[in-house]
UniProtKB/TrEMBL annotation:
The gene is yggU. It holds the Pfam family DUF167. This is UPF0235 protein RGE70_13155. Belongs to the UPF0235 family. InterPro entries: DUF167, YggU-like_sf. Signal peptide: none annotated. SMART domains: DUF167 (SM01152).
Amino acid sequence: MVAVSMQQGNLLLNLYVQPKASRDQVVGLHGEELKIAITAPPVDGKANTHLVKYLSKAFKVPKGDITILKGLTGRHKQLQILSPKLIPPAIQNLL
């Protein structure tokens, strides 16, 4: 498993999400996953909503173009981002 990969123009991310952090940021690699810290608490799907909103801004795509494929209720998630317009430098280095 790789943390970040491109498949047919779409970005596939394997994430380890840290909720209730002091700020939203891409932390770096955490084993074979990309660690992302977000400020939202892991309650009633707020962390997932906040994560999608954060990533939509980072990759310049609509929120509807981001799909959580695995891990809706856990810290380990797999996301697909359809045709990202921008790839942040921290993630570009992992491709």
